[in-house]
Amino acid sequence: MAPVLRIEAGAPAASIARISADASGRLALTASYDKTARLWELPSGRLLKILRPPLGDGNEGKLYAGALSPDGSVAAVGGYTGAVGSGNFSVYVFDTATGRLARRLEGLPNGIVDLAFSAQGRFLAAVLFAGDGLRVWETATGREVARDSDYGNGNSMGVDWHGEDRLVTACYDGNLRLYQWTPGAGPDSDAGKLTLLKRTTVQGGAEPFSARFSPDGLRIAVGFFDSTSVAVVDGNDLSYLFAPDTTGVTDGNLSAVTWTDDGATLAAGGMWARDGNGRTIRRWPEAGRGQPGDSVAALNTIMDLRPLPGGRILFGACDPAWGTLEPTGQRQLLGPSPIADYRDNWDDFRVADDGTVVAFGYQQFGKIPARFSPAGRRLTLLNGQSPPTGRQPTLQKDAALPLQASMARDSWRMPVGLKDQTALAVLRAPRIEGLMVTDWKYTYAPKLDGKPLPLRRYEMSRSLAIARDASSILLGTDWHLRSFAADGTEHWRMPAPDVVWAVNLADDDHLAVAAYGDGTIRWHRADTGQELLAFFPHADRKRWVLWTPEGYYDCSPGAEDLIGWHVNRGEDREADFFPAAKFRQRSYRPDVIARVLETRDVAAALTAANEAAGRQPQPAQRIEDVVAEMRPPVVELAVGGARGEASVPGSTNTFTLRYRVRRGGAEAVTRVAVLVDGRPVSVEAPIPANDPAEASASVPLPPRDCAISVLAQNKFAVSEPVTLRIVHAADPVAKEPAALKPRLYLLAAGIAHYKNNDQLPDLVYPPKDARDFAAAFQRQEGSLYQKVEARVLVGDQAGANDIRAGLEWIKHRTTVRDVAVIFLSGHGESDEELRFYFCGKDYDRAQRLSTGVSIEEIKKTISSMPGKVLFFIDSCHAGNAPGKLFAAQGVGGNDLTQVINELSSAESGAIVFASSTGRQQSLESDEWKNGAFTKAIVEGLDGKADLLQDGKITVSTLQAFVASRVEELTAGRQAPTGARPRIVPDFPIAVTR
User: Fold this and answer.
1) pTM score, two decimals?
2) Last residue of a domain, one of 335, 365, 394
3) pLDDT at 886 over 70
4) Would you call 449 exposed, middle or buried from its count of C-beta atoms within 10 A (0-12, 13-18, 19+)?
5) Is 541 part of a structural domain of the chain?
6) Residue 829: per-residue pLDDT
7) CA atoms within 13 A on the CB side of 240
8) Which end of the chain is more exposed for a tag (fewer CB within 10 A), N or C?
């Protein structure tokens, strides 16, 4: 099938259905409805690997089950893992050391609900949907050794082992089933014998969801989907023993149960939220008979609980979130949700009349409201205010108002379209009047004029919008976005990526807008349901990405890798995944994205964008062709195991790194590069002769713990890095002698007056900004840095060739031990191909190549420098007179987003600070005699960014301080941004005196 565009936010983007751990408690596995399984390090919560089984459209590939073998070497996952409706589903078994798909257990008649390994990992058990019961395989061979299909029509929800010979299952037919398993004597003998010892209903509920043996096997705890009770039964005959105290559990359920590793404590959680404060885990000491204690663990349903060594408990939830509970009941949230939570957002999910602005809440019930304009590329938090509605007056902005008053009112303004950026849009809640639609909130039977609307079995209705002329209904459900005529006839239905929590209609009912459980908001044509545009706002409330089904995208700085392309490689191989950044050259088109809602047709938006920019006409891209042609190689490490870690003696100064490289597509691998802590090192890294072949490189190590990364490159792109952590067994934090302190080399260019000021208006403070910036770092000489050498380019010394010479100087001066800092302040422009140029003093559009310094030149310099690199850019000055491109694209003639994302990629490795985002301009003031960006940086370096009060200013603390300080200085009109490559660790860049 064609590549599938997926969200990749570094964590599950949909409910965590199951969570598992190895026996040592050092690894955890999450299986998610987002069609990925993830391997995590405990107790840190660091992501180790993403396991990607093959997937398809709709529900195909959603994971409902996952289990980690006791030794952590094998992960098994399943769910709707097979062509839905085919009757041929599979369990996928992965090697956790490599991430490879080791085996496929195929031929299952229905989806897989739960998986469990026996105590020694010799056997794997699975239970299935729709009465298809229990299966058992031999782990080493994948041979099926036992089954029981006599489960009626009930969904089998849970399975658990005690030792190697007993199993218990929980099924929605109301029964627990207890089995004795007697394996065969050898691989060539009979498979073995599975004996049903007891089948019985259990007091406490009609739909048992989970059943777990106590560590000694004498008791089984049972949680129910339809009840707030928990039952404890005998582990030998399922006879009822007692019910733990559930006083106060008055709603929801306690469906997930577990014992602690010593059996001293029983725990349960599910949909119950104590006092409305979040989903709560109840714990009973004295093996379930003691007085209970409660701990809030998650915002959404707790789906699974597992024991960890030392009395800790591992939990997974629908937020999606996961973490641990300490024996004291204290929660450690290791995997916070990366997505916005649109539950109960009905009235707060509002859109402009033309559909070009949307308002939503980041949290349930519309809390933390925000608005977003795709054409304006602007995400704005509303600071607790509700957006204007048709029932409220729309406030007009008065240009004569003082700044503070003006900014307060500006939060109500909704810029729409490309022609009139001062227009105000009224945001409307979904209309639910005009037709008699009832029972549409959280029921299986929504009705129109008293007659049920046709849904599938167990498909729950979640959201509703009625057309303004009462001609149609838009209904969101668990599985579909549906459109009905006024007489109940279905117009169309589209598979939903997750629950459709909120819907609305806009543009005279020509656009259907929906908020989904995977954190996306998507615009559809109301006549056909065809998806036009998707928006993913990350839960950090800063990063966002927009895309079309054809793969054109726009994004905020640092957000480019929040989406990417999943590429199946056949049923028996793990899939590849390539972030969108790998296809930036073809697919990064903010000018196209800005026109999609206006044209309601991607091909028309592409034509209009190309015409406006003076590009040659081109057909809409076929993403299959783009990915097939341009996909990068794939690298795999042959060392490090599941944890991706190697321990070496403290005196070791080199490490032999073994790796494999595979072509991603048809293009040959042209280069393999090795990085240490995200920066290049001089290493001979051979290209393996064949795809399966292994190669090695001898990598120099610094006298401290570090991370080695490997990249492979072809004609079009660079692979994603794979990383091995190196831990020194002795003195892991060895300090380097003071005499070996790094040097800092600094290049600063500040341009105020331009030769062609009819093209670029003059500025005031960039030269002073450059001098003050350099002086702030020079004050660090003798403390953090052995020496600070600065080259400042201002006035007549700031032409394009002067800047190029400065880049050459800093490139050749910086060594692997040093820090390089580049600061550019002045005007910047992007050409018709969105290629950025920093404008030298002699800049002339007619001779852009020679009078501007291109992003390619800057990137080439930065990526070849061995030391750490910090890049500061301030090129969106308020004096900028937008040229043709600005007016045509509606996205700015100065695309710093692309600059930030290119320079902060793994292959470039720069830490980027930028003065502003989107349409914002960089402000300067006669009061400060600086730009706000530079003023904040200087204040931060001089001590105010020591946010932890430990005498250090690090990259992350300076970024946080600068963002806050600039917002304060400019009353919110300017928002600095930036990005740091994932493989570059945080580090000090200044110290306080």
Assistant:
1) 0.89
2) 335
3) no
4) exposed
5) no
6) 87
7) 12
8) C
Considering the domain architecture, whether residues 164 and 140 belong to the same structural domain is answered as: yes
Report the distance separating Cα 813 and Cα 787, nearest Å. 12
Q: Is 407 a residue whose pLDDT tops 50? A: no
User: Where are the alpha helices (H) located in 686-735, listed in sequence order?
Assistant: none
3-state secondary structure of 336: coil
Longest dimension (CA), the chain: 91
Q: Which of 273, 199, 279, 203 is nearest to 240 (CA)?
A: 203
- Domain shared by 861 and 715, yes or no: no
Burial 31-41 (b: 16+ CB within 10 A, else e): bbbbbbbbbbb
User: Would 396 be classed as within a structural domain?
Assistant: no
| Residue 235 token pair | 């582990």
Q: Which residues of 274-285 are buried (b: 16+ CB within 10 A; e: fewer)?
A: beeebbbbbbbe
Number of domains composing the chain: 3
pLDDT band at 877; cut points 50, 70, 90: low
818/886 same-domain check: yes
* 753 and 709 co-located in one domain: no
Task: Grade residue 731 by pLDDT with cuts at 50, 70 and 90.
Answer: low
* CA end-to-end distance (rounded Å), the chain: 60
CATH number of the CATH domain containing 876: 3.40.50.1460
Asked, for residue 462, whether it belongs to a domain, the answer is no
Write down the pLDDT at residue 309: 97
pLDDT in tens, 770-801: 999 999 999 999 999 999 999 999 999 999 99
pLDDT in tens, 339-367: 999 999 999 999 999 999 999 999 999 99
Q: Which element (helix H / strand E) includes 850? A: helix 848-851
pLDDT one-digit tens code per residue, 220-247: 999 999 999 999 999 999 999 999 999 9
- Angle subtended at Cα 31 by Cα 217 and Cα 495, rounded to the nearest 5 degrees: 135
In a domain, 316, yes or no: yes
**Is 661 in the same domain as 786?**
no
C-alpha–C-alpha distance, residues 134 and 109, integer Å: 11
**% the chain with pLDDT above 90:** 75
Task: Check whether residue 187 and residue 73 sit in a common domain.
Answer: yes
The domain boundary, picked from 286, 309, 335, lies at 335
Using CA atoms, how far apart are residues 171 and 157, in angstroms rounded to an integer?
5
Q: Which residues on adjacent β-strands are paired with residue 305?
A: 315
Taking the C-alpha atoms of residue 533 and residue 199, their distance in angstroms, rounded to an integer, is 51
Q: Name the strand (E) or helix (H) holding 849.
A: helix 848-851
Q: Where are the alpha helices (DSSP H) in 539-601?
A: 584-587, 590-599
Output the domain CATH number for residue 704: 2.60.40.10
Query: What pLDDT score does 733 carry?
Result: 47
Contacts with 276 (C-beta within 8 Å, 6 or more apart), sequence order: none
CA distance 342 to 519: 7
Do 763 and 850 fall within a single domain? yes
With a CB cutoff of 8 Å and minimum separation 6, the contacts of 454 are 488, 490
Domain with 28, as residue range(s), is: 7-335
For residue 404, the model assigns a pLDDT of: 25
Residue 969 pLDDT greater than 80, yes or no: yes
Q: Which helix (H) or strand (E) holds 603?
A: helix 602-613
The C-alpha angle with vertex 430 and arms to 426 and 435, in degrees rounded to 5, equals: 130
Across 388-392, 427-431, 475-479, least confident range: 388-392
In our burial notation (b when 16+ CB lie closer than 10 A, e otherwise), range 521-548 reads: bbbbebeebbbbbbbbbbbeebbbbbbb
- pLDDT, tens digit, 9 for 90 and up, residues 539-573: 999 999 999 999 999 999 889 999 999 999 999 99
Query: Given a cut of 60, is residue 750 above it in pLDDT?
Result: yes
Same domain? For 719 and 754 the reply is no
* Count of C-beta atoms within a 10 Å radius of residue 43: 14
The chain-wide mean pLDDT, for the chain, equals 89
Distances 25 to 122, 667, 800 between C-alpha atoms, Å: 19, 42, 57
Q: What is the pLDDT of residue 425?
A: 61
> Which amino acid is present at 523?
W
